[in-house]
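Example record used in the benchmark description.
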Amino acid sequence: MAVALAAVATATRSILLRDVDHRISGLLTQESGEFANFVEEGRDPGTGERFTDPRTLLNVFLRRQYADPDEELLGLTPGRDHAPGAAPYVIRQNRDIPAHVALHEDRDALVEIFESTDPSGTLDRPRGEVRWAKVPITLKGDTATPDTTGSGRAAPPAAFVVAFHADAERAVADEAFRTLLAISGLALLMTTGIGWAVAGRILAPVRLVRTTAAQLTEQDLTRRIPVQGRDDIAALAATFNAMLDRLERAFAAQRTFVDDAGHELRTPITIVRGHLELMGDDPAEREETVRLVTDELDRMSRIVEDLLLLAKAERPDFVTPGPVQLGELTADVFVKARALGERAWELDGVADLEVELDAQRITQAMVQLAQNAVQHTAPGRRIRIGSRVARPGRIELYVADSGSGVRAEDAELIFERFRRGTTRRGSRTSGAGLGLAIVRAIAQGHRGEVELRPTEGGGATFVLDLPAPERQGKQLP
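Model output (structure tokens):
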């Protein structure tokens, strides 16, 4: 802004000085033209004839002119000795011109102008610059003044001179320039102060974001930024707070996950260590201990595999959809589930359409639900598996058992990691509580959800509610 204001002030001064030069040039041209026209058309008021004497001509013309305050109108005629370099005789108007700038008081300047062969010019004097124009006077029958000094050249003829003192006009432009600079400086100071205040106010939330981020630690993620207004800075603060909410939930889930995993793995390790420490030399006892230890190690292995699978669920490539015939997928799941236990298996319904799903992940989830149904039903009880179109663009795959059902307070609890809820009647489970968490991760990977619904006649129905528009040559959005 300082550069712009300085450029404006400089350009304004240049324009003003140019206008001064144009005005002076126009004035010199005008006065010279008026005098030349008077020489051609003027008449001597004493005789009524054309002028024959330059001094009379100049006196008459100058009495009729009104000069500007910084303008001098002079008539110059050769001096008494007619010698080159001699001061000319000056005829001027009866008006006051400051002595320190008056051209008629400056002998050297008068001689230079009188003897110059140029019609106009500029004199740079210690007293100030003078712009001048000269009109030589040549009357009918008049000749150049003869040389009376023996110098070899005649004295210049009489002349009319228009002189303009430009310093005063230029001083006005310079004063305007200084005034404009002062106003620009004041405007710059005011703008700088306002800009400093506004920028500080705008950037205050940004500094608060930086300060808050610097104060965050893994143990303390509770700090938040106050959101005020509806501008971009407020949106930034809201986004930062949302990020902190996600981080806090992620760290909390991580701590819970580590605590639960440690608890679940600590139990089989304690069992294995205890049996090994108490194992004697009896072959039968050693065989029983090895069997128990192996069983606990298998359970630990399943827990670790499930944990790895849940960790992989956070990756974008956890689910890879492809074209699948839903009817064939439902039938394959039914066939595989029948090998899980002696139950009254029933293929309840099949939706006949082609959709975009990850067949392996859906099969894994459905088999897990079937395994869960087997664990919570008695032999010979009915378990139904099926698929259906719930509404346009949504399908459901379900496993319905005829067990004792799930208590209302456990409906959300059972889908969390390492949470089994209240053990249902007839349950013989020994899992780690990760199966339904895996099912929910697979459903969410398909942008769907797993739901628990009551079964008519008693029991629990687990439903995979998935977005699955009919395939039209492209994957799910």
